[in-house]
Design goal:
Elements lengths: L6 H16 L9 E6 L2 E5 L3 E2 L2 E2 L3 E8 L3 H9 L1 H7 L3 E11 L2 E8 L8 E12 L10 E8 L13 E2 L1 E12 L13 E12 L6 H27 L7
Parallel strand pairs: 8-10
Antiparallel strand pairs: 1-2, 2-5, 3-4, 5-12, 6-7, 7-8, 8-9, 9-11, 11-12
Bound molecules: ligand B8X.
The site of ligand B8X has 22 residues, from strand 7, strand 8, strand 11, strand 12 and helix 4.
């Protein structure tokens, strides 16, 4: 994939998103907690671009019994998506750039009174050593970033094209640390940071969008993480 024309952007945006995900939510960042559920904390910043709500979102979650690699592979893989992405109406793989990089076209269910949206984005999965703690296990990241494709110009179907940048960054912790082939799923925990910025691409009332995000994002992350636990529970652990 390194010789693909998108590769420089994929490399830059993925590493930028990794850095952004690892920034805390305290301090002057302007993050406000808007949803809590068990170990899940969801924050947003209220931001508009040309009068459109583009509120950046950051969610932190801790899930027992799954690894960072398992969570990211489920988030990345097309075959699982209909099982956890509740707002999805249709999904097409527009291009297979490599085994770790795909281009998706997704149409999402219409949210009244806004018109239906679609998203065209590249999706890239990779593992990176934790530069802050070389002894820790690798971080896994999936980054989704809007792109163009000659076959799928915006607004060619009835949908308004959204512009998004999303990342999910995961890290596995084994507690208590023990002999690798004696670890059970009860000993592993996955720390998840999910970040998203979705520009709705066309007019949608700020109040409606904020209400949708407030309702949809907690549901989305809970559903996704429950799906991961369900998918992995009877399978050998994939570190
Ligand atoms: C007017 C904007 C409509 C709208 C378009 C798109 C998306 C959206 C697209 C992609 C991703 S993802 O994390 O990359 C997972 C792959 O699907 C998440 C969200 C969300 C919304 C809004 C509907 C809201 C929503 C919020 C959270 C989850 C799902 N949907």
């Amino acid at each position: 994939a390194v010789n693909h024309k998108l590769w420089p952007e994929i490399e830059k945006v993925t590493m930028q998103q990794l850095h952004y995900a690892r920034l805390g939510v305290g301090g002057a960042g302007g993050w406000q907690l808007f949803a809590e559920d068990g170990d899940m904390r969801m924050y947003r910043r209220e931001e508009e671009a040309d009068g459109l709500v583009v509120d950046p979102l950051k969610a932190c979650h801790v899930v027992k019994g799954v690894t960072a690699r398992e969570v990211c592979q489920i988030f990345f893989s097309p075959e699982y998506r209909s099982g956890w992405e509740t707002t999805l109406e249709d999904m097409t793989i527009a291009e297979t750039i490599s085994n770790d990089t795909l281009v998706f076209l997704q149409t999402h269910k219409r949210i009244w009174p806004a018109s239906q949206r679609d998203a065209l984005f590249w999706s890239h999965i990779r593992s990176v050593p934790d530069d802050q703690d070389p002894d820790a296990s690798d971080l896994w990241i999936v980054c989704n970033h809007s792109t163009e494709h000659p076959q799928y110009p915006p607004n060619s179907n009835k949908c308004v094209r959204v512009y998004l940048t999303v990342c999910i960054v995961c890290q596995t912790f084994v507690d208590p640390p023990k002999d690798p082939n004696k670890i059970s799923r009860d000993d592993i925990t996955c720390k998840i940071t999910y970040c998203s910025v979705v520009n709705p691409g066309g007019w949608a009332p700020a109040s409606v969008l904020r209400a949708v995000y407030k309702r949809e994002y907690p549901k989305f992350l809970k559903r996704f993480t429950s799906f991961c636990i369900e998918q992995c529970k009877d399978k050998p652990i994939l570190f």
